[in-house]
Amino acid sequence: MVFKKAVLKLAVAVLLLTLLAACSANSNKSNSQNSSKNQSGSTISNNTNTSNSNTNTGNSSSPAKSDDGSVIYKNNQYGFSFALPESWSGYSIINQVWKGNDIKLGKITETGPLISIRHPQWTSKNPRQDIPIMVFTLPQWDLIQHEKISVGAAPIGPSELGRNNAYVFALPARYNFAFLTGYKEVEDILKNHPLKAFIITVSSE
Known about the structure:
- The protein has 205 residues and is α+β, with helices and mostly antiparallel strands.
- It has 2 domains: 1-40; 54-197, no CATH class.
- It is 27% helix and 29% strand.
- It has 3 helices and 11 strands, in the order H-E-E-E-E-E-E-E-H-E-E-E-H-E.
- It has helices at residues 2-39, 138-145, 183-191; strands spanning 54-55, 64-65, 71-75, 80-84, 92-102, 107-118, 131-137, 149-150, 159-163, 167-171, 195-197.
- Strands 1, 5, 6, 7, 8, 9 and 10 form a 7-stranded antiparallel β-sheet that branches. A 4-stranded antiparallel β-sheet has the order 2-3-4-11, with no helix packed on it.
- Strand 3 (71-75) and strand 4 (80-84) form a beta hairpin.
- The longest helix is centred in the N-terminal third of the chain and has 38 residues, at 2-39.
- The protein is globular, with a radius of gyration of 28 Å.
């Protein structure tokens, strides 16, 4: 009789240990899944833009990494790519419009895309320096070079970053005069000539 009781107690103990081990395994699996979700990167949409701008990665390829580990933003619509440090992974694209004033007429006669690459750590409370890229058609760029139109309050015009068969890509004058967080990093990025233009097919319409 005593032997049977001992066997019964042993069986109950083994059963309890088995149940505890199963619960512990499920708990660890759940924690592992949550940890993986928290560690995955994401691109944050920014809803604090002005009415004439929006966060958009359309008309461009998915971000890719080069052999040296840099992050590449590629815009297929206008025909250029831009190399970024790995710390910019998860960047967002802000699409705005530049406006050109006819110097003689004193009114806006030209407009075009202003594409800004925004650091992933940018927030409305702590804005960081964007990388702004103005896109001009070749005729528009000629107007600027001949001082027919002005695209900003600065007495100097934008600086060319590169060009292809259809567009000129340029950096706005005094783009960093607000001295936002990261402006020196952007200066260093630009020193390495990160913009590469490529030939695109232009519609005849």
